[in-house]
């Protein structure tokens, strides 16, 4: 039996949490042993990922719950709030790395961590990159934006380990180029902030009731044109709630058609949309007669109806 979305989310998050704890302990321990403050700081960053993991483990129980009397449109906005939390935390992590890098510019590093620190940093990069790719696959599998956001948090941890590895190699081969660590960290900062923006912006648009999908209207019109019983579809509106989309529009049919027949056409059309577009979970259709008063796409002429 296939796993439910909440089970997939929790499994992926628990795997990430265990990896985060292991990597944090490894980096902090090696950092203390080798005198690498950068590696210690990177280990603390790994522990910060546990905060987002906890948010997802708690939040997923709510946003995957079915609609009820208190939340007739479902609980998808809990996922939106979780995405905002992850995006904000990710932005603070990026800004923190950037601030530390700018603050240390011009200061020569007296620490020479050695290859043990490099191995620890490289291990973190590899493990977190694998986690990023695997978590992204799970996110796409169940269409979870929160899990997608957490996947990027894994990648941010991999990127934050990069300056540590660069600093070690730089000390070995270019002992005079002390600024390479800071430059690499600033590049990482830009990448993390970009990821944070890509997580935050869609979530903020969702809270402001922005259109869910720019291409959705074209898809609906295309489906309508292939149905001979549908004369016109207009006033298409969509909004996103978490990883799902709610849709409504007006559907015009022959005015001489019976109510029962028109209802059957709308129900069949609704079923077709739900089958073709996975993200759409509910469709409200307002049936109207194909008359001059209701037509929008193909309006009537001034003096007579133009078919």
From TrEMBL:
Residue ranges annotated for the Cation efflux protein cytoplasmic domain, each copy included: 213-290
Protein's GO biological process: iron ion transport; zinc ion transport
Keyword terms: Ion transport, Iron, Iron transport, Membrane, Transmembrane, Transmembrane helix, Transport, Zinc, Zinc transport
TM ranges: 81-102, 114-135
Subcellular location: Membrane
Molecular functions (GO terms): monoatomic cation transmembrane transporter activity
GO cellular component, one term: membrane
Membrane topology note: Multi-pass membrane protein
Residue stretches making up the Cation efflux protein transmembrane domain: 14-207
Organism superkingdom: Bacteria
Coiled coil stretches, renumbered: none
Gene3D superfamilies, alphabetized: Cation efflux protein transmembrane domain, Cation efflux protein, cytoplasmic domain
Record-stated family: Belongs to the cation diffusion facilitator (CDF) transporter (TC 2.A.4) family. FieF subfamily.
Protein name from the UniProt record: Metal transporter
Taxonomic lineage: Bacteria, Pseudomonadati, Pseudomonadota, Gammaproteobacteria, Vibrionales
